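Bug #77: duplicate submission created two jobs. Keeping one. Sequence:
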Amino acid sequence: MVFEWIRSGRATLRRRDDPGWRGNFVSHLLPTTFSTYAKVLHRVDACYENIDNPLSPKENEILKIPACIELRALIGNLRADLRGTRLRWKEIAEALKGPFEPELNLEWFRAKLEPGCWPRFLRGPDEGTLDAEECSALVSTLRPFTGNQECSFRFAEMPFIGTNKQLLFHGTLEEGRAFLSDRTYQFTPEYWWPADGCWCVCSDYDLMFTVVGGGEELISAVLRDTFLECIEVTPSTRIDFYAPMK
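Kept job's structure:
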């Protein structure tokens, strides 16, 4: 099977209630044969609805809606700068005085906010999928390292249990560009890779980031991309929500 090299190359995933569990790692997503890895942070956008249509002080008091001062200030500055709605994770980390480290995850920042603040003022990140612009940027970065060789695109099994959905497709990366932006499956594929296995992309259906493995030159290109927001990681970088803040 074309997927077997990934399946057999990953570390065996252990249950969280296993006494020996110490976390989930990049090695549980991708084979450890690549020399370098990058974590692509899924997009976050500001949501202005609750600023443009605020509740009265009395309504806020009755509903116990928090002030969310840090996020209000952050997205207020974003709007004032006329930069659109997208917020970089690094900006969020700076505003909330949190670290911008390889094990970064959403729970680090939710823990710094009053309950309900994130969904009131921020939209995203999406779980298990890249948006169309992120896909396009990643495809453009991978193209020079891929050429016209055939690529494989495999969807996760879990969301489609009990259905007859086809999970594995083949085509060139350019043909895959249109396929990746097609929301027929509601997600981008969980795994995609070229025939020679020189790189592999994983968007696990339960995670809010994508991991790419490849050679140093390829990963350097991914990290340099001005649209994508990435952090270099290693096979031993934790990926679970329980990773401690450093």
